[in-house]
Model the fold of this input.
Amino acid sequence: MQWIKIFSSPDDALERIQPGSTQLLIVHQKRICLARINDDFFAVADKCSHNGESLSKGKINYIGEVVCPWHGYRFQLKSGKESAERSADLETFPIKQDETGFYIGL
Done:
């Protein structure tokens, strides 16, 4: 696994990504949806497995799922699992934070 530095520090990530929001990242030609719930970050593939819409355009619901803006498919941010088992699960990416920066694992 390769760790890619996304932000210069964990505080930088907290300042740039608001709680309850998503951000599109393109890292080594991969589209990744970075989501923040409170002070926790999650990274999943940005493409809905049902119809291909960008999940970074979606919303995060109250139970920690990203909801696709097209048809409402819901994916658990921790596991990438499609909540109703109607579509394939998403690839997930680990997050690492320390004094040297904020990283995503590919």
